[in-house]
Amino acid sequence: MLLRPRQQVFVSKNVEALMAYGNTLGVAPTGAGKSLCFSAVIRELIKYNPDLKTCVIAHRDELTYQNLDKFKKVNPNISTSIVDSRSKSWDGQVTFAMVQTLSKEHNLIQMPLLDLIVVDEAHHITADSYISILNHAIDLNPEVKIFGVTATPARGDRSSLGQVFNNCGDQITLGELVYSGNLVRPRTFVIDTGNAQQKLKALRTRSGGDYSETEVASILDSEPQNSEVVRHWKEKAGDRKTVVFCSNSTHAKHVFKAYLDAGIKAGIVTCDSSYSEREAVLNDLTCDRIQVIVNVAVLTEGWDYPPISCVVLLRQSSYKSTMLQMIGRGLRTVDPDIYPNVIKRDCIILDFGISSIIHGFPEQSICLNENEQGFRICPACRQRIAKGSDECPLCGADFQMKYYDGNKTKGQEAKNVLENFKMAELNLLAHSNFSWTKLDKKSQIATGFSSWVYICKKDGVWVAVGGAKKDELESFIPTKIVYQGEKLEALAAGNDFLCCFEDEEAAKKTASWRTEKPTEKQLSYLPKKYKKVNDLTRGDASAIIAYSLRAKPKLEQLGVL
């Protein structure tokens, strides 16, 4: 399996930091592929030390098994084992462990000497259960390396991750993922009802930025405010599946009732909901029995339902990373295999507070500039972090926090974002692992040794279709639609599809043979309309032949052509 170029950079930077400092924190938002990245980090460290003994820690069963599955895709030849409520095996070179199980004393004493500990969702690492594991591992081996990965480094209790990590190896931003087509683009609307913005600004000034959810709810939870929330939602996103983030349980119940009173099918989950109640509501959303799910601090982390295409913010975020984590619930692209009837082009953010004003719109971080290279020193905690960070992942210091002055020209900002997206396709093609060949104005193809991806515009929607060999016996997996939506996301999904089946050798789009003239054999196979193209290269000819002989018949069967 081949990583995206940005994932490869993330891996190499974190390996470098681990070798230099013995610990590091890697930050990457939803959709970045954290599991694939830390699996590759382990692989690279095993190259340095073939006997490297590793433990990957997570705090939920589903994360443990997801991580194990992704690890095997990246490292099929490295042995694994599991420590959880059902199994207590350390036989594998890499063991995947549940923190709740491993931290129990009778299980902890069975832990062997470790060379590397990887902590998923590492913003939990300062909790007592994690610290007990780390301390025991350090007692066994003072040289053990510690690698943490997280999308949300800031903790609600303001416990600094700098207690464990003395540097941040790399940080992938949400803006990078949107700009590369790996997440859908956000469209933010800041809506003020009843002078809520002025009241929240005053509260922020008085509190120093640490919001009391009760005080926030007293501002955002009222009538007709809640009815106005539903009215604005109907105008801008009434046909979309939506997640609403409220300030407290009482607030959530009032907003939930406002949706029901407006005839909208809605559900609610809060910290007061039992596990079975939460599962029932989430199942109702999945099965289309409800359209809107209202919650309080339950769905911020660890919940992904890609058909969500609207996020309503009715709570304040002291940390930008927490705001982006909530917004990220709606930015996932949709897999047509799982949701064949869902076409998702973007995500609407309705912010009824001032989080977007203070921390900046997510659109504003989407720019043509490459992610800033190198490192900087956080002025607050004096630790080494990624140069492009606008919030310190170790102490939470916000370097770009500001107040909205009411004089900014939103039209110009929107124009800049639109122009950036016009250029994003060119940027993606330049950085794609593979070479793309244009077949006509509305279609193009990329190929590897074992797979191909074709994208085209059909009925106003960009469609990506892929086909590949399954194994060395030359059997093929069924050709399938891998994405439906906007062109940028279709190209990104196509690149990811190829990465699943190809290696670096197949992806060498800069190989000299690609720019040579087509061979006589290629010319004999080329369709007539391409034989007279003067600047046709050998690489393009290879892709066109793959389209004609391999892809086109499958595309006709699927009804794409």
Helix and strand topology:
Layout: H1 5-21, E1 23-27, H2 34-48, E2 54-58, H3 61-74, E3 80-83, E4 94-98, H4 99-102, H5 105-108, E5 116-120, H6 128-140, E6 145-150, E7 168-171, H7 174-179, E8 185-190, H8 196-207, H9 213-220, H10 225-237, E9 242-246, H11 249-261, E10 266-269, H12 275-286, E11 292-295, E12 310-314, H13 320-328, E13 346-351, H14 355-359, E14 375-377, E15 384-386, H15 410-431, E16 436-440, E17 443-447, E18 451-458, E19 461-469, E20 476-485, H16 487-499, H17 520-525, H18 528-531, H19 538-558
Parallel strand pairs: 1-6, 1-7, 2-4, 2-5, 3-4, 5-6, 8-13, 9-11, 9-12, 10-11, 12-13
Antiparallel strand pairs: 14-15, 16-17, 17-18, 18-19, 19-20
The count of β-strands is 20
Oligomeric composition of the shown chains: single chain
CATH fold-level label of the largest domain: Rossmann fold
Helix content bin:
25-40%
Strand numbers in spatial order across the main sheet = 3-4-2-5-6-1-7
Overall domain count: 3
Low-confidence stretches: 402-415
From the coordinates shown, what is the CATH architecture of the largest domain? Answer: 3-Layer(aba) Sandwich
Task: Please explain how this structure is put together.
The protein is α/β, with parallel strands linked by helices and 561 residues long. It folds into 3 domains: 5-173, 3-Layer(aba) Sandwich (Rossmann fold), CATH 3.40.50; 182-369 and 409-416, P-loop containing nucleotide triphosphate hydrolases (Rossmann fold), CATH 3.40.50.300; 432-558, no CATH class. The protein is built from 19 helices and 20 strands. The strands form 4 sheets. Strands 3-4-2-5-6-1-7 form a 7-stranded parallel beta sheet. A 6-stranded parallel beta sheet has the order 8-13-12-9-11-10, with helices on both faces. Strands 16-17-18-19-20 form a 5-stranded antiparallel beta sheet, sandwiched between helices. The longest helix has 22 residues, at 410-431. 46% of the residues are buried. Residues 402-415 have low confidence and may be disordered.
